[in-house]
Amino acid sequence: MSRATTGKGTLLRLGFLDADGALDALAALGPAGDPLLALLSRTADPDQALAALVRVAEAAEDRDELLAALVDDEGTAMRLLCVLGASEALGDHLVRHPGHWHELTDPLLGSTRPAAYAVREGLLRAVGADPHDPRPTATVPDAAALDALRVEYRRILLRLASRDLAHHLGLDDAAAELSDLAAGTLEAALAIARQRVGADAASTRLAVVAMGKCGGHELNYVSDVDVIFAYEPVDGADESVAARAATQLASNLIQVCGDHTGEGTIWPVDAALRPEGKSGPLVRTIASHRGYYERWAKTWEFQALLKARPVAGDLALGREYVAMVAPLVWSAAERQGFVEDTQAMRRRVVDHIPPREADRQLKLGSGGLRDVEFAVQLLQLVHGRADEKLRAQATLSALAELTRGGYVGREDGEALHEAYSFLRMLEHRIQLSQLRRTHVVPTDEGALRRLGRSMGFHKEPAANLDKTWQHHRREVRRLHEKLFYRPLLAAVAKIPGPEARLSPEAAASRLAALGYADPKAALRHLEALTSGVTRAARIQRALLPAMLGWMADAPDPDAGLFGFRRISESLGDTPWYLKTLRDEGQVAERLAKLLATSRYATRLLEREPQGVRMLGEDLDPLPAEALTEEMVASSSRQQDPEKAVRAIRAIRRRELFRIAAGDMLGLIDVADVGAGLSRLTDATLEATLVVTMRAVCEARSLDAPPTRIAVIAMGRYGGFELSYGSDADVLFVHDPEPGADPQAAASYAQAVANEIRRLLSLPGDDPALLVDADLRPEGKQGALVRTLESYAAYYAKWSKVWEAQALLRADAVVGDRDLRERFEAMIDPLRFPAEGITDDDVVEVRRIKARVDQERLPRGADPTTHLKLGRGGLADIEWTVQLLQMRHAGRVPALRTSRTLEALSAAVEAELISVEDAEELEHGWRTVSRIRNAVTLVRGKPGDHLPRDAREKAAVAAMLGYAPGASDEMVNDYLRITRRAHAVVDRIFWG
């Protein structure tokens, strides 16, 4: 094998792509070439690094010294080759100024960061200015000064880039050095500007205040340097002369940095962030700035001022400017719509990205640097009013403080830190290549390979770079949405600055102002929640100012705060709890509203605090099948029947809270609430039936049940219209297995039914489910369980019209499917007679209704406000619909339903009732049902009256969507709606 072939193979293995070109370049270097191959293989682009080295060597007067130094000193070689491999622009600079390679021989370069004052002095001396002069002025001729400034700038940049690339400087250090370099460059540019302006320059004090990344000590390799100019006339100077001189100084400074010369350019100085932008004067006095910011400034201007830092010119004046704007910056979050304006501004930035760049934009695109910066800055501006530790100017420093203070979760903070560091490093490497201001990730395979290798991906660099970038983009996008659009931000931003920090003094005055009935007790709860230096206490201090306001908007803020304390204490240090409240959507706001409105929901949460998690989920009721499966699986792990049913009831308790929360928050229609509660009861009875049948078999030493059992839902349960306080009205039916002893089967079924009722009514941490079988044949005197034949015989011989009416709501939902279907087939002719009920039966139904109205209305109850039995109440409406069913369901199949609203719709379709009358009945049914549910949720126990207590009435009104103070309006609406429904009942039911 020839030497050339061997050489090519080696070069390819070392990462070279153009082996022929590399061989030619190595030959041009002579004996120095081969010893450098290993180091070249570690660079971003070995081909580019080798070719640039040849060019630099050819340009250098001390070529032999250069090559000898590279061979003898690995540190020097690594620094130079890393720069040449990563930056074509700095390679070109070294070709123009080959003597600058000596800068990379400094053995301390890898470990020592140059002091900012030393950088400034070097740049000033380059233009002939005295660094110790209070107003340093250039003495080198103007054109030569411009070139000298650029050469010195590139010299320092060369040293910095070599440390960054070869010694892994780190993002913070590199960005801070670049910011110091920019500050020194602005000072030297101002020195040249003073030389241009001449004597008038002495009439003014000019401060250069850096904004954005330069102000935050986190500048890129190539970026606009955003500044604001503030000036004041010196004592005794003419104000107009001082203003003109300041404007000339600022204009010339901008030109010095941005003009192109034989040595290129530095970067643009952008003063567009000044008051009124490009339309406003370039320079202003402190007073003029203050007047503008206090009266005219927009939201984004205060966000921009977050990083303001004096960097050049009169630093004392610059510090005065920063001190002036600081109170305005840290109160900006209290401006009307501040959070929403900031969020809208970020969306506008994304919308204006050119479509061809959207997927490659590292800075402005979704999942890019701006997403991190906007989220961090918004959190700073909202919470930094009360917590001065958050006022760090650098993004990563601020993020660390936000994480340390509990405003951002640890995992989220770490993920954002890692992603932002990666994205910034990638931005640096992209810009370093040509020293151009760009934030677009290239698509060229060679450029991606170079970038990937410069970031440490030496195996499949382009693919691995893209994979890692996409991972961080997804993380940033996810966390930006989570943090930037956090509802807590808008709530906290509305709290006046002194009250945003929950000190005892601020809390006491805030509680009284918010209308807490017992501020002293509330303050004790706050102290218990926020005292100490734990992370939980810090998060509570951030949460509670907003939660106090949300609770105060609800009817019973004192109860809400007490409930919140109990739940917080029961969950203790559970890691997800406070994190969920802080981060997950509207959980904290929803929790505050529930606790300050509903005793029912509060008691459920106190017994099942894990339910807090549900508030960030879909609150629609779960289907019965899924619940049954979960309940059966959970109960099967317990041998003891009581423990097994407790497991079932725990799931029921959780789902009761889901439905209650969705109802209170207005996310579930009242008909869906009834259906959800009914399906939950289905699942509870089904799983309990499984447990009790197994337990009775074991107690009686039976291998298998001697009979099949079904549970028939009746009443509002059968109609899918349960409310929170409803009993479960049922019938028990059984059917002995072939060959089974009838007596043994009946005894078994009786034992199962009794055990179901006992286990579900035991005292516990959840609301008991009372299983009521009083609608069975012969009522309480009749057998608890009957066979199908026994039911058929009874109904055939003894059934009364009221029993046929009761069977309208029979829905066979639990137990043996075949038995359920046969039961419904057996009762259908009775409840849906082919010719309808007789006129005598109609009279009997009306007679029974009149007796119910007279006898069952509680003594002293107001018939106009009783929700169930009052005029136009539930009983009126439901009996009216049921009478239509009994009279017409035999010939109108659509009426054969157990649900009131479905039957009402079918009656309209069959023209048995007018659309207008049906709408009045439906409106009445929905209104009364909602109020009845709301009363239970508010009081924590069932109630069939409109509440008389003012706070309870206000809470019910709030749940129905009435404005604060409008509870009397709710009562008036109720009376009007039920009066109109009762008028329809008079016509349709009573005839």
How does this structure look, described?
With 991 residues, the protein is mainly alpha-helical. Among the domains are: 3-105, no CATH class; 129-142 and 155-329, Beta Polymerase, domain 2; 339-379 and 388-493, Four Helix Bundle (Hemerythrin (Met), subunit A); 502-596, no CATH class; 833-991, Nucleotidyltransferases  domain 2 (Four Helix Bundle (Hemerythrin (Met), subunit A)), CATH 1.20.120.330. Strands 1, 2, 3, 4 and 5 form a five-stranded mixed sheet that branches. Helix 12 (239-258) links the parallel strand 2 and strand 3 (269-270). The longest helix has 30 residues, at 670-699. 50% of the residues are buried. The model is unreliable at 1-6 (pLDDT under 50). Residues 344-484, 848-987 form the PII-uridylyltransferase/Glutamine-synthetase adenylyltransferase domain.
Brief overview:
It catalyses: [glutamine synthetase]-O(4)-(5'-adenylyl)-L-tyrosine + phosphate = [glutamine synthetase]-L-tyrosine + ADP; [glutamine synthetase]-L-tyrosine + ATP = [glutamine synthetase]-O(4)-(5'-adenylyl)-L-tyrosine + diphosphate. This protein is mainly alpha-helical. 61% of the residues lie in helices and 5% in strands.
